[in-house]
Amino acid sequence: MPLRLGVFGGSFNPIHFGHLLTAGDMRYQLRLDRILFVPAYHPPHKHGPLTAYRHRLSMTQLAIDSEPGFKLCAIEESRPGPSYTVDTLRELRSLHPGATLHLIVGSDQYRDVASWHQPGRLTNLARIVVMSRPGEERPPLFPGHDPKRVRFCPVIPVGISAAAIRARLAKNLSIRYMLPVVVAEYLRRHRLYPGPRTRRTA
């Protein structure tokens, strides 16, 4: 039986319960052996300041540490230039020959897949799993993708985003119940998203 691997990429800036809940739901629905959390090193679609990679890596490790079905994957760290998903999939296929890769993306991400680097190559390298998002309509199939290799999946709806967490921190609002306590403690200890004044937020 080939190993079934989920590939869950993102900036994880910071990682939160929305990521963990949807990843767990996808692992259950797709009967995956493991989900690889792949923090993007140089995400090509992100503009503006981004928390240092080492911090995003550490927060991700802390968040998934107690879940044996989740594993941190720092594969993009050693690759120069923009962190293109197609290159990550190629490298993962080389590292895990025989494994079935399932690239997990949100419906908002898939809607913009035409702007990705070599989007037509993605379904040659992995099956794509498109997760529903609250308030988002199902995106159309990208013309260059094999419909048998793209699956649209409902997922447990979670209305938490990293942007919302950063915005609350900037206003010194509580982020309790939005992300693991260990992650909240880490970002507070390293003053990653400072607000106008410092106080305990979670």
Quick tags:
202 residues, alpha/beta, six-stranded parallel beta sheet, 7 helices, 32% helix, globular, disordered C terminus
Structural class: alpha/beta
Number of helical regions: 7
Series of H and E elements: EHEHEHEHHEEHH
Shape: globular
Estimate the mean pLDDT confidence.
92
Instruction: State the end-to-end CA separation.
Output: 43 Å
Q: Low-confidence parts, pLDDT < 50 over ≥5 residues?
A: 198-202
Number of strands: 6
Largest sheet: 6 strands, parallel
Our estimate of the beta-strand percent is 15-25%
Radius of gyration: 17 Å
Percent helix range:
25-40%
Query: Biggest sheet, strands in spatial order?
Result: 3-2-1-4-5-6
EC number: 2.7.7.18
Catalytic activity: nicotinate beta-D-ribonucleotide + ATP + H(+) = deamido-NAD(+) + diphosphate
Keywords: ATP-binding, NAD, Nucleotide-binding, Nucleotidyltransferase, Pyridine nucleotide biosynthesis, Transferase
Protein name: Probable nicotinate-nucleotide adenylyltransferase
